[in-house]
Amino acid sequence: MPSLWVDADACPRAARDILIRAAERTRTSAWFVANHQVPLPPSRWVKPLAVASGFDAADNEIVRRIERGDLLITADLPLALEAIDKGAEVMTNRGEALTPDNIRARVQMRDFMETLRASGEHTGGPSGYGDVERREFANALDRWLARNRG
């Protein structure tokens, strides 16, 4: 069975709770990678991986360890691109699939928005994480787990 990898530095608590329950229910290894200790329950399936602090330390560790067929949960588009290039699947914590067909355009848009922000333009941020986002994520994760049962 493929593993779940979570970019835990920016993962909302509600998404983390969904991932923990799903990993336990399906007996799927779920690695929560962050540059700090992430509060997790003791579990055979849910595993914290704290890395040294530093720019992209958690991202680099994920890329080093992730394998073809694993699922990465992240909103970090450059990290998503690297994982996709290694053959992993990627989903945001809102249940949106990042794929070879859409990731490069998403990275280009991110870079464009970053340029606008650097020039002083206010571009806003993502909307809040509520019931709809939790439900979409849980449903997308369940579909992935059902497709990838060993």
From TrEMBL:
Q: Superkingdom, according to UniProt?
A: Bacteria
TM ranges: none
Pfam families given in the database record = DUF188 (PF02639)
Checking InterPro entries in the record gives:
UPF0178
| Similarity comment | Belongs to the UPF0178 family.
- What is this protein's record name? UPF0178 protein GCM10023342_21210
Q: Which organism is it from?
A: Modicisalibacter zincidurans
Origin organism lineage: Bacteria, Pseudomonadati, Pseudomonadota, Gammaproteobacteria, Oceanospirillales
